[in-house]
Structure formats: C-alpha cells, structure tokens
Design a protein that fits this description.
This protein is an all-alpha fold. It is about 55% helix and about 0% strand. It has one domain. The termini are far apart.
Length: about 50
C-alpha cells in the first residue's frame, strides 16, 4: 500500500506537519497503514485544537 493511498484531510495547526509525520513513522519501521492510522488521530487532534 502506498503511503498516500488514503490521505488524511488535516486542517488546523498541525496540517503542515502531517506529511512529515507520516513519512517519519514509516521510516521508524512501521507500515504505511499504521502511519495513516496515526495521521487520522493527528487530524482529529488538529481539528480539536482549532476549535
């Protein structure tokens, strides 16, 4: 699975960091799916921070 197959839609203060975060998680040895799951959590956190 490609890392950008299911992109997380991130708005808020963390939006500019999600791509780097996902790439770093994969670099640490996790699967792209795990990176994506964490990006979804990051997206929720960012929306919460924005509200």
């Amino acid at each position: 699975m490609a890392i950008d197959r299911y992109p997380a839609r991130v708005s808020g203060p963390l939006a500019s960091h999600v791509a780097v975060f996902r790439a770093e998680v994969v670099r640490w040895g996790y699967t792209p799916r795990v990176a994506q799951d964490n990006a979804y959590v990051m997206a929720h956190l960012s929306r919460w921070m924005e509200s």
